[in-house]
């Protein structure tokens, strides 16, 4: 690859300097089990493995590495991170991605989207203090547009920003809407299959399929699995800049922002969130929490509960309270991990 060719001399120089053992900083751009793809600051990519059995790092982490072989390295540590997004169920807790600025929730008019998944994605973002952005795709399919808009009204009223677009029907408008939202941020895409996540990635990141194949080949020696999380740098066009080379070697790529694509969002377990985190992850609950008679109120059936009173008045939606109840139940399950 030309990339490797370009960075060859640089690599040799840095390896010689530190006798191959100097710690270098790099970015994790893909993860599949204990196998990582590591991107150096010159854009070249290596296979990376953690030193121990258990791996504590995720896509989006900045790590320190030591060269092991020409295209391999050992991850020796990671830099302090802003945040870390998890997913968990009764059986395991999984690291999803680190250093996230925005959770982009991709929904569509057809097939109908899961409101449960939307609610969970919002809660996961709120629990980390990350900004959520809701996208309703396929507005060209007008038959179910009004129904979808109606279901989203609750979330708009809660203050969540919602974009209505059509990746296929009006790609230019879609780009115009998304550019200012994505530029200079690290965003993770969340969505059920069929909502248009891949279509969106294709529109935003030219050549994304080739990149995916390259990473996939690296991770799985040729098997084209899509069961890994990966990070794509946004192209220069996203922030309106005209100059700049496409690809990882562009020194401005890091500042332009990135998109992290993660498979398997049919379910989004949040067993790892504590009760205290949960009640605060519902923004409409927050002002009511001080109204509860009992300081340790669970907002389920306690007398004098501010949340339940607000629900009775119609100020808090029953759908949202149901989700809270379900998440609280999950949070109380035993966790073997
Ligand atoms: N009508 C319409 N179809 C779309 C749009 N975006 C994606 N699709 C279609 O929806 C299906 C699922 O899209 P895909 O990108 O594979 O979804 P993913 O499973 O979320 O990655 C495909 O058949 C796409 O062609 C859109 O804006 N309008
Ligand atoms: Mg897809
Ligand atoms: Zn209460």
From TrEMBL:
Which residues bind Zn(2+) per the record?
Answer: 292, 297, 299, 305
Where, subcellularly, is it found?
A: Cytoplasm
User: Where would you say this protein principally sits, based on its record?
Assistant: cytoplasm
Q: Which SUPFAM superfamilies match?
A: P-loop containing nucleoside triphosphate hydrolases
Question: By its UniProt entry, which Pfam families does this protein fall under?
Answer: RsgA_GTPase
List keywords of the entry alphabetically.
Answer: Cytoplasm, GTP-binding, Hydrolase, Metal-binding, Nucleotide-binding, Ribosome biogenesis, RNA-binding, rRNA-binding, Zinc
Keyword Transmembrane helix part of the UniProt annotation: no
Record protein name field: Small ribosomal subunit biogenesis GTPase RsgA
The protein's organism comes out as Cupriavidus basilensis
The gene coding this protein: rsgA
């Amino acid at each position: 690859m030309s990339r490797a060719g370009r960075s060859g001399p640089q690599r040799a120089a840095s390896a010689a300097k530190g006798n191959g053992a100097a710690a270098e900083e790099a970015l994790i751009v893909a993860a599949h089990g204990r196998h990582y793809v590591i991107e150096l600051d010159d854009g070249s990519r290596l296979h990376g493995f953690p030193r121990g059995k258990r791996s504590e790092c995720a896509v989006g982490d900045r790590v320190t590495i030591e060269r092991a072989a020409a295209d391999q390295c050992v991850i020796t540590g990671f830099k302090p991170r802003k945040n870390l997004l998890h997913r968990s169920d009764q059986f395991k807790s999984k690291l999803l991605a680190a250093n996230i600025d925005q959770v982009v929730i991709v929904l569509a008019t057809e097939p109908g989207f899961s409101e449960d998944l939307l609610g969970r994605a919002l809660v996961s973002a709120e629990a980390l203090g990350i900004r959520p952005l809701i996208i309703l795709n396929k507005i060209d399919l007008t038959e179910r547009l009004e129904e979808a808009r109606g279901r989203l009204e609750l979330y708009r009223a809660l203050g969540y920003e919602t974009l209505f677009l059509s990746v296929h029907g009006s790609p230019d408008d879609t780009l115009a809407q998304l550019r200012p939202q994505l530029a200079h941020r690290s965003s993770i895409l969340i969505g059920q299959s069929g909502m248009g996540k891949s279509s969106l990635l294709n529109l935003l990141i030219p050549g994304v399929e080739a990149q995916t194949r390259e990473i996939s080949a690296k991770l799985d020696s040729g098997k084209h699995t899509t069961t890994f999380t990966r990070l794509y740098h946004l192209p220069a066009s996203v922030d309106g800049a005209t100059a700049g080379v496409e690809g990882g070697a562009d020194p401005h790529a890091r500042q332009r922002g990135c998109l992290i694509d993660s498979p398997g969002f049919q379910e989004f377990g949040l067993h790892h969130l504590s009760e205290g985190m949960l009640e605060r992850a519902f923004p409409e609950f927050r002002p009511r929490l001080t109204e509860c008679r009992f300081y340790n109120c669970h907002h389920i059936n306690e007398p004098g509960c501010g949340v339940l009173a607000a629900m009775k008045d119609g100020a808090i939606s029953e759908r949202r309270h149901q989700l809270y109840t379900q998440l609280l139940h999950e949070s109380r399950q035993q966790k073997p991990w």
